[in-house]
Amino acid sequence: MTVRIVRLGSERLPGEGLRIGTVRRPPLKSARAALASGTDREWRGFVRRYRAEMKRPDNRALLDTLAALSHTADFSVGCYCADEARCHRSVLRELLAERGARLAQ
């Protein structure tokens, strides 16, 4: 059993399971501009703010639930961004791994 981090709209893989969308808007207009311009400094700032956001109790509980579920079911989470390296789903992958999630490669 695993969780996959995927690009929504991509071809499904065998055994992928249910897809859960994590599409989001950056929390601030300036963050949206940072992602569009894509400098390393702006990306690091976005990652720092996203990680802080995910430390809120409700978000921590959700991450813990997804990590636990990855040990008993196959499912996927993702969004539409073309480049995972500049997408919050890359950070989500790290956060789930830090919680012991079983991640598909």
Write the SSE topology.
Layout: E1 3-7, E2 18-21, H1 29-37, H2 40-53, H3 57-69, E3 75-79, H4 88-98
Parallel strand pairs: 1-3, 2-3
pLDDT averaged over residues: 87
Instruction: Give the termini separation.
Output: 12 Å
Secondary structure class reads alpha/beta
Strand order of the largest sheet: 1-3-2
- The count of strands amounts to 3
Beta-strand portion reads 5-15%
**Main sheet specs:** 3 strands, parallel
What's the tally of helices?
4
| Low-pLDDT stretches | none
Order of helices and strands: EEHHHEH
Helix content: 40-55%
* CA-atom Rg in angstroms: 14 Å
The backbone outline, from C-alpha atoms, is globular
> Can you tell me the number of structural domains?
1
Walk me through the structure.
By secondary structure, the protein is α/β, with parallel strands linked by helices. It has one domain (3-98). It is 45% helix and 13% strand. The chain contains four helices and three strands; from the N terminus they run E-E-H-H-H-E-H. The protein has a three-stranded parallel β-sheet with strand order 1-3-2. Helix 1 (29-37) crosses helix 2 (40-53). The chain starts with a strand and ends in a 7-residue tail after the last helix. The model has no long low-confidence stretch (mean pLDDT 87).
Write a concise keyword list for the protein shown above.
105 residues; 13% strand; globular
